[in-house]
Specification:
The chain is an alpha/beta fold. The chain is built from 22 helices and 7 strands. The strands form 2 sheets. A 5-stranded parallel sheet has the order 2-3-4-1-5, sandwiched between helices.
């Protein structure tokens, strides 16, 4: 089985730029221009939902920055491939402002580290292959971190303990030494590699609350430098929840974040047309049309789209030749067709976007998803045509008694998820379809991806 998700490897990042797969190249150019014009200590938040492509956006921006920096260690062929997608950037004359150095830090990947600043610096050194002498760094970092934490948390007793020590002045001096060592590190880095440093912090909203807060606070304390720009790619709503969890429900997380972010920029939405083509979601089979309908109704992000489509493709295999399980000739077969083509994608979609609504849907408590997907769509018209009996079809044609789509969809929902088949009631006939007590079990079995309809050879 293959994954449809685009992993942000260097190869995929560059290829996506060259194909302009997400139709964001013009936004990347504008964002690059914005970064070029930062001439003070600045911090920018790129806000986007999980799975919307934030990591791709910031990593591609970092590639562009380093491609324009002649002092970067980037391979020249890679540099050419990147800049070939941005003629306006490629034609910019070299200048101090264009000689920027970009580094990327995955906060979530490192949130088990004790000290965020130490972790960040080591990550930068590893990424750039540089070295710097932090003599006695372990003791200084440990002590300075303790003192800084005392100030941040307003813990007077810790400060008093420090003041009661044998040599309190020396302890505070060590904190100042740490500050100077960090500033010297970045000063040397800029002298060797570029005039301005752009540090991309990714996945902060997924970190442990204590780590996220500590990282923000210590960046503000140690790394406030007029030649450094921080770019945080975050889901701001989730980050506010994280901050609120750490400081308490009554804490004003939104205003707290204003201390750290000079600008908040919404991630530009991706044009998904080419993306659909990339993952194969652009052919004519009817199941794919229904899948696209569900993706659009639930406004799925790129990652959700990949997961959803992969599960649909895995759960139900549409063969090129007829077989027993795909025999839809009789009423029970027509019901099976409706379940596989129309109900299955809804179940998989709900499970991804709203597990509570999924539970209500299969328990017969809420038919809303069926209405949202099929009431006013071409796919819904095809479904309704299957659910009409001859009399209803004639009435609709002659306008004698219009049968509403909501009525037929509600009948369908109740036949599968509500009706109790007992006391002589063995089936429900709706149009060309016959549903029984086995209908619900059948479609949940298929949705599990452990049925004879599944295809594991994608």
């Amino acid at each position: 089985m293959n994954s449809f998700e685009l992993i942000p490897t260097e190869e995929n990042l560059i290829q996506t730029l060259q194909d302009d797969l997400l139709q964001r190249n013009n936004k990347l150019e504008l964002f690059y221009d914005l970064l070029l014009n930062q001439n003070f200590s600045s911090s920018i938040a790129i806000d986007g939902r999980w799975g919307s492509g934030k990591t791709f956006f910031v990593k591609q921006t970092a590639l562009i920055i380093n491609a324009k920096n002649p002092a970067s260690t980037m391979d020249n062929n890679i540099r050419t491939n990147i800049l070939s997608s941005f003629s306006s950037i490629a034609n910019i004359e070299p200048s101090p402002s264009t000689c920027q150095l970009a580094v990327y830090y995955d906060a979530w990947e490192n949130d088990t580290d004790d000290d965020p600043i130490l972790s960040l610096i080591y990550n930068i050194m590893e990424e750039l292959g540089t070295s710097y002498d932090f003599s006695g760094k372990k003791d200084i970092f440990k002590l300075a971190g303790s003192i800084l934490e005392s100030f941040i948390n307003k813990d007077v007793y810790k400060i008093i303990d420090n003041l009661k020590s044998d040599n309190p002045i020396a302890k505070f001096q060590e904190q100042k030494d740490l500050n100077n060592k960090i500033k010297n590190f970045f000063r040397q880095l800029k002298a060797e590699r570029g005039n301005r440093l752009v540090i991309f912090i990714d996945e902060l909203d997924r970190c442990r609350p204590s780590y996220a807060v500590k990282l923000l606070e210590r960046i503000k304390h140690y790394l406030c430098d007029e030649d450094i720009t921080f770019v945080f790619s975050v889901n701001l709503a989730e980050l506010q929840h994280t901050i609120g969890y750490y400081y308490g429900n009554n804490f004003d997380s939104c205003r707290y974040l204003d201390r750290f972010f000079d600008m908040r920029i919404s991630l530009p939405p991706a044009d998904k047309t080419r993306f659909y083509e990339k993952i194969g979601l652009n052919t004519s089979p009817f199941l794919e049309k229904i899948s696209l309908r569900i993706i659009n109704v639930y406004n799925m992000e790129l990652r959700e789209t990949c997961r959803f489509y992969r599960q649909v493709k895995t759960a139900v295999y549409i063969p090129t030749h007829t077989s027993e399980q795909w025999d839809f000739a009789f009423s029970d077969g027509k019901a099976r067709e409706v379940l596989l083509l129309y109900i299955l994608p809804v179940l998989i979609g709900l499970k991804i976007v709203n597990i509570s609504l999924y539970a209500d849907f299969i328990e017969g408590k809420n038919a809303t998803p069926l209405m949202d997907i099929y009431k006013d769509s071409n796919e819904g018209k095809c479904l309704i045509s299957i659910l009409l009996n001859k009399d209803e079809m004639n009435e609709n044609i002659h306008g004698l008694k219009k049968i509403s789509s909501e009525q037929k969809l509600q009948e369908l929902y109740e036949a599968i998820f509500v009706n109790e088949y007992k006391d002589g009631n063995y089936n429900t006939i709706i149009g060309k379809c016959e549903f029984t007590e086995k209908s619900k079990k059948f479609i949940l079995d298929v949705e599990s991806m452990l049925s004879r309809y599944a295809n594991y050879h994608l």
